[in-house]
Amino acid sequence: MEPTISFFSGFTPNDLLFLGEAALRTLWISVLSISIGTVLGVFFGWILFEGKWAAALTVAPVLDIFRSVPLIIQLVLFYNFAPIVGLNLDPFASGVVILTIYTAALVANVARGGIEAVGTPMRRAARSLGMSYWQDLRHVVLPIGGRAVFPAWVGVALGVMKDSALVSVLGYVELLKASQILITRTQEPFLILSIAGAFYFALSYPISRYAASLEKRWAQ
Amino acid sequence: MIQIRDLHKYFGTLHVLKGIDLDVDKGEVLSVIGASGSGKSTLLYCINGLEPIQQGSVEVDGTDVHAKGTDINKLRQQLGMVFQQWNSFPHLTALENVALAPKIVKGKSKAEAREIAAQQLKHVGLGEKLDVYPSALSGGQQQRLAIARALAMEPEYMLFDEATSALDPELVGEVLETMRMLAEEGMTMICVTHEMGFARDVSDRVAFFHQGVMEEIGPPAQIFGDAQSEHTRKFLANVR
Amino acid sequence: MFDYNFHWRPVMKNLPDLLEAALLTLQVAVLAMILGIVIGLGLALIRLHMRGPLRWLASCWVELARNTPALFQLFFFGFGLGAFGLHLSPYMIVLTGLTFNCAGYLAENFRGGFQAVPDTQLRASRSLGMTAWQAYTRIVIPQVLRIVYHPITNQMVWAVLMSSLGMLVGFRELSGETQFFASRTFRIFEYFAVTAVIYYVIVKIILLGSRLLASRLFRY
């Protein structure tokens, strides 16, 4: 009867499909959180830059909390806090909320650095040409500062993509959770983890290399 | 005495020194001039063994610099070197910058090394700056610190690689003044330089390098007044 | 507003246990950092100065550590090695996983640090008669340490935050212990809220300590 047992416990093409779907879920939750989180983060970064001491007393310490507490704790806390205030969020929604705020907290620092990188003389020059405050932001600060911190932002985005694996703690079946489920069933940990690792690597490695090459090129 | 015989140096396929023959006597001050890329700085690096050579020989007081058995670290103690970028060690105070090599290379005691360092710093006019970090010193002061650092090893020879080229114009004078003082004290010096005034007034001989070849060598009066080579005259006409 | 009664007493009763677990968190993070610094330094030097298979291995280590999720790395040391009959204790899973990750990130920091010290520093040292070893240990490495001091501090913070993943591989450090108590009492929010505060305090202490140490170490 041995062949039958290995038939049931073996790794099948269907499992590959299962992993593929989970990988898409990883991508989806990452893209969603990174996009919203980046917009929020840039806004916070601007507040940090312009707000001076008022921001230093309000926004800054709040964002700091999200950088000083493990993401996994944030996820569990929020998932269990939401019902208390009457919100019924599924694991996906909770994951998106926390990953978004987490992204925003990291991007805020990057964005502030970008604005600072432009420097007062260049902004004075822009204003002296008659640009308004918003024109200066749009046509000077955004392109120049954005370029300065783009590689850093890529680093944050890839970090969030990798950290999205932690949403599995809420029961959301993203790639790593799916791998875990399959491992339990098939007892093929090495094969399945290799596939999952390869997916993350194939996504992260080329992008980080590209960002590094941009950084090098722009540094000259 | 430094004896250079038929010295050839390549960087990859680039032939930077094409058969140099040169003797420098004890107590002599030699200035080396020429356009950038003519190989004059490379010559200094070959003399103290910072660059390997492909053909010929360099001897310092009878010791072959590039021979296998030579203790190059010992030999370099005879050859003080000052670079274009002054290369002060940023994590050490002025005193520590100068005292480090006597202590760890020559094995002097800490107190002795510090005494030598303080003396040399005073010598180059930095007696007030002993406990200052290089970041708080001007370029000219850092370059004098580099000179003191080399002198603390009590070298027989000093090699200057465009010691003033990277300095702001108003700081060049103080470094040249220090170099002139060393020359007057009888130090043997090879100075790769763009300062024609220094070359003419201070050196015993001036060598002109052109595309890896030593075109001409002679007393300043000859080089500056009556150069034999077409290239030398052209170069000097351009720098004036 | 809340239809929920907060019960803090059980948490407070277990606070000593949580603080003890926090010490375990610190212990594993510090150990991983010490090992990570030594290995990271080695990886950086190999990647800077060597050719051949050793360099390739070092690059694999660094890129895998940086381009896959930390949780994946923990799972790999947890279940993946089981395929080869190697079963690590939860403590060892977290320690090896964290060390692997920290070494990879620190290697890149060290590499950048070495590249930031100009070659001319080495030349100047050698021209004074120093041996290569003396020049490295007296001149180059002290400057590299200064450059990577801040990144090392950040990595230490990351190591503490990352150790919370121990909870997912059955290691009862701060997060694992919290989960253990929370699941027994169903006071999940309260337990994790207190744990979040503990993490926050740990992170702040590390940052403060690092700043104090820096002001003593670096006077230039």
TrEMBL record, chain A:
Signal peptide: none annotated. The lineage of its organism: Bacteria, Pseudomonadati, Pseudomonadota, Alphaproteobacteria, Rhodobacterales. This is Amino acid ABC transporter membrane protein 2, PAAT family. GO terms for cellular component: ATP-binding cassette (ABC) transporter complex. It comes from Shimia haliotis. The keyword Kinase does not apply. Keywords: Amino-acid transport, Cell membrane, Membrane, Transmembrane, Transmembrane helix, Transport. Belongs to the binding-protein-dependent transport system permease family. HisMQ subfamily. CDD domains: TM_PBP2 (cd06261).
Automatic annotation (TrEMBL), chain B:
Pfam families: ABC_tran. Residues 2-236 form the ABC transporter domain. The keyword Nucleotide-binding applies. Keywords: Amino-acid transport, ATP-binding, Cell membrane, Membrane, Nucleotide-binding, Transport. CDD domains: ABC_HisP_GlnQ. PANTHER family: AMINO ACID IMPORT ATP-BINDING PROTEIN, GLUTAMATE_ASPARTATE IMPORT ATP-BINDING PROTEIN GLTL. Belongs to the ABC transporter superfamily. SMART domains: AAA. Transmembrane segments: none annotated. It comes from the Bacteria. It is found in: Cell membrane. It is a peripheral membrane protein. The keyword Metal-binding does not apply. Its main location: membrane. It comes from Shimia haliotis. GO terms for cellular component: plasma membrane. The lineage of its organism: Bacteria, Pseudomonadati, Pseudomonadota, Alphaproteobacteria, Rhodobacterales. This is Amino acid ABC transporter ATP-binding protein, PAAT family. One of its GO terms (molecular function) is ATP hydrolysis activity.
Automatic annotation (TrEMBL), chain C:
It comes from Shimia haliotis. GO terms for molecular function: L-cystine transmembrane transporter activity. The chain crosses the membrane at residues 21-50, 70-88, 152-171, 191-214. Keywords: Amino-acid transport, Cell membrane, Membrane, Transmembrane, Transmembrane helix, Transport. This is Amino acid ABC transporter membrane protein 1, PAAT family. Its main location: membrane. It holds the Pfam family BPD_transp_1. PANTHER family: L-CYSTINE TRANSPORT SYSTEM PERMEASE PROTEIN TCYL, MEMBRANE COMPONENT OF AMINO ACID ABC TRANSPORTER. It is a multi-pass membrane protein. Belongs to the binding-protein-dependent transport system permease family. HisMQ subfamily. It is found in: Cell inner membrane; Cell membrane. It comes from the Bacteria.
